Prior knowledge:
This protein is mostly helical. It has helices at 3-22, 30-50, 57-76, 79-100.
Amino acid sequence: MSRIVLGLICGLIFACADVGLMIPMSFPDKHTAMIAAFISRFAIGFVIVNIRLPWPGWAVGLLLGVLLSLPDAIVTKTFGPILGTGAVGGLIMGGVAGRFGQ
């Protein structure tokens, strides 16, 4: 599968999963928070699959998942959940990219 298509699929799955985790939470502006989370996680998924670094896929995913989640964590002051989902999602998508990306 091409990396572009795989990136779109991984980005959509990661974004939907993260927004799904946000449903039971309460925010002052929940709609805006969910849209921002969707866009952020979609971008992370797309970038992880489409970047080429000379490391194992899981390592690239972990690094980029945490690094690209850090601005959201700083702004919201919610480091654990945001960096945690970024790390786990990055590991998974990095592994998928290493195995199925061409």
